[in-house]
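We emphasize that the prediction below concerns an isolated chain of 336 residues; any contacts that depend on oligomerization or on bound cofactors are therefore not represented. The input was used exactly as deposited, without trimming of termini.
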Amino acid sequence: MLLTCCTKEGDTIYLANPDEKKPPTTPLVTVIYGPNSLGDRTYCDKIYKGIEASAAERGLRTLHLMPESMEQGQAYLEMMFQQMESAQDSVRRLFIVTSPAYEEFIRKNNRRLENSPNADLLYLETSTPLEGKGSTLYIDYYGAMYMAGFVCKTRHSSISFLLVLANPYTQSVVEAGEGFVDGYNDTTNSKYEKTLQIQYLSDEPGGGFQLADTTALRIYNEAGNGDDNVCVVPVCGGAMNAFLRILPDYKFYVCVDDYIPLRNGFNLVNVIKHIDTVLDDYIEKWTNGTMPKHQTLGLADGGTEVIIGNGTSVKAAEADSVRQVAIRKEAERYGK
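Result of the prediction step, given as a token string:
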């Protein structure tokens, strides 16, 4: 198995600098990602950067594991659980699992750590707390994507929107799609003809986060049906890079997960998930022993943010009004 760790530039993962040695008693933060997910320029890259910045500030060691397949990911998980179970030292260890692809393994095995007082587990992207040892964190996209759907529907021109979803199983993807569709459909003050198309990239759980450029181009052309006046709304992780590469010049796009400046295009809306700053807060709480059992964060908590870009006529008061509606609807979903 290949272990990759500590320093990332572009799409390359480098081994740790041997000159930057920390004592073996230094607390260790280990992160496992979904297969081939680093370098996505969105969610996973923000996790990496957020954890590295937090660890550097607090003097922690880090290890980042990116498997090439689900089988290798399962092997990484088993290896880390065995190490944490058998550790005889007093070194504090935090194991962060970033992908819902490992849901079954985590829920079957988290109790194995209950006899390891110095080992802690943080599982991301689930709204259901773990039974037994381990913390969970979920950042809900519904409210932010509701706002995005509203902004897109109110744009003052005729346009077709292509909502691209990785798969119909990943909770964060499903709820993001529901939020966009609800915000779009709840908006009735648009005078211009618009259409909304929905495309799933995979019908497999955990699939659809990688895509060939040729496939992205085919999907884009089919959505336009001969007219390239299509705005892509990608909720598909690293697969969004394929759409960025094939996007014609001077077309609109909705950036999801992070703000990505377009060279010759227009960011209609930027929907941002602040997973980097949220994880910094979690690591700080872990170091002082106050990491929560579970949190669900969203638009009201600062877990997500919407930045309305160019090409819209949405005024500040109108944006604030729909933001309050989105916050209320998001809260109703989780009983906040």
